[in-house]
Design brief:
Strand content: 25-35%
Largest sheet: 5 strands, antiparallel
Distance between the termini: 27 Å
Shape: globular
Number of helices: 2
Number of strands: 7
Order of helices and strands: EEEHEEEEH
Radius of gyration: 14 Å
Helix content: 10-25%
Structural class: alpha+beta
């Protein structure tokens, strides 16, 4: 899988049908790989529907969300670049504690 690049700002996953089975597309797989292997978890939002991560390679903040929560059985995820100000606004003191 590929680490985040300076050009990455918004990774949006989707479900696709492969051999009669619904699976995550390439962005879904990349998001899951990045969370498991590359990004550092910083904070979880109240309610647990979004998580803030930090890329240790460049210090940028990334928010992991599930924007299509109306889907039954779960939904594909999204990884969105946040400014430090946006991260502070959404996740409070978690940023300043780093």
């Amino acid at each position: 899988m590929m680490h985040l690049t300076p050009e990455d700002t918004d990774l949006i996953g989707n479900w696709i049908l492969v051999n009669s089975k619904v699976v995550g597309d390439t962005p879904c797989e990349r998001i899951e790989w990045l969370i498991a292997n590359s990004l550092q978890k910083v904070a979880i939002a109240e309610g647990g529907w979004s998580t803030l991560y930090r890329n240790p390679q460049d210090g940028r903040y990334w928010e992991h969300t599930y924007p299509r929560s109306e889907m039954h059985g779960g939904e594909p995820s999204r990884l969105t670049l946040l400014t430090e100000e946006q991260a502070n606004t959404r996740y409070g003191h978690a940023i300043s504690d780093l």
